[in-house]
Amino acid sequence: MAASAVASPRVHDFKVVLLGEGCVGKTSLVLRYVENKFNEKHESTLQASFLTKKLTIGNRRVNLSIWDTAGQERFHALGPIYYRDSNGAILTYDITDDDSFQKVKNWVKELKKMLGTDIMLTIIGNKTDLEKQRNVSVETAEQYAESVGATHFQTSAKLNRGVEEVFLDLSRRMIEQADKQDAEKRALSPSSRSTAAGNVVLLEETPAAPIKSGCC
Ligand SMILES: Nc1nc2c(ncn2[C@@H]2O[C@H](COP(=O)(O)OP(=O)(O)OP(=O)(O)O)[C@@H](O)[C@H]2O)c(=O)[nH]1
Ligand SMILES: [Mg+2]
Fold this sequence. Notes:
alpha/beta; Rossmann fold; six-stranded mixed beta sheet; 7 helices; 47% helix; disordered N terminus; binds guanosine-5'-triphosphate; binds magnesium ion
């Protein structure tokens, strides 16, 4: 019984939220990732929509609940409903639109203020198929992402470039974060505290003798 419990892969349920200005391609990225579809027409998301995706990374199974939010400013105030309790956020800008990059910075500030470092951040420059119309340089975006502890990816939902990698990388980081939090919890649990206390006794015993003999 114990052997089968060890062999069964661990399952993680992660919530991921997509944020960013209207028309940058949030819905297109999710549709490409989950259903491998692309729609040339912009149909503004109202409030938010929800899709799920299962993936396996090594011996871990991951169930992603992906919340695709509305980019229109009139829906901004709804943000907390969707990013609260999220394990990861994908902040998207359109590489041809510098305003949409500034909007990403606003979202990062808000998320840091409200959620601290509990949430894993990924910044995406989408529409790389429109390279000739680029208005946000890769260096600027990468430097900014690094400065706020986010990873940065470039994608084209249209051509299916880089999309899978975004969700894979984010899932890996959310697993690492979950492992870290589990380890912290274990360290604080009463049973592990007694183990730690036992270690302290051992540590005190070993160096105590030579120090005493050296001083007196
Ligand atoms: N050229 C190009 N167009 C894209 C790409 N991704 C999305 N689009 C187009 O950009 C427009 C907006 O895409 P959406 O995915 O609806 O944008 P959104 O961010 O969900 O917009 P809101 O729901 O209003 O917040 C659509 O016309 C898409 O076809 C891309 O990678 N390249
Ligand atoms: Mg949308």
